[in-house]
Amino acid sequence: MDHRVSPSAEVEMAVVVEQLKKKYPGGATVALAVNQTESGQGYAQGFKKAIEGTNLKIIKEAPLTDPNAAATTLKASGAQVLVDAGVTTDCLTLSMAVGRAGWKPDTFVQPANCVDGKSLYEPAGEAADGQQIMVWLKDPGNRSTPRTRRSRSISPTWRRRATRPRSTTTRSTAGPSPT
User: Fold this and answer.
1) CATH code of the domain containing 48
2) Element (H, E) at 86
3) For tag attachment on the chain, is the N or C end more exposed, with fewer CB atoms within 10 Å?
């Protein structure tokens, strides 16, 4: 049984920002690739809201209407972190464009809708190595939160594509589970 669920883009980006604050306690520069759809804009706005009052700074933003142009523009910014505020169709195209541009940002964050490794990351090969993807898992055995019809709790997990094909590593995030 598949227990994957996805909360709002705002909740997801808040968790992403918490992870970035832990990795970069002194702050970091961010390049933001934004899909121009309502979904992409939701991710972008959620990220911008979540970084308010932090040492994370967006130094360049580019639309994903042309992933190659976006990758080139964002690479030129020198940002440490690349955040994809995109939709499923952007996952592979942005990965490939970043690879063609020869860019290896220190941290490359893809949204939860990019979780399908077989169809999205295997074709990208090395271009997808090291990317971080938020995975939301529903734990039907967790009785610490009130029951709802859809789920009992949601806990975020980071999945990082390893350098070896078909191998992933997973680490859990700290903090309360958003419900």
Assistant:
1) 3.40.50.2300
2) none
3) N
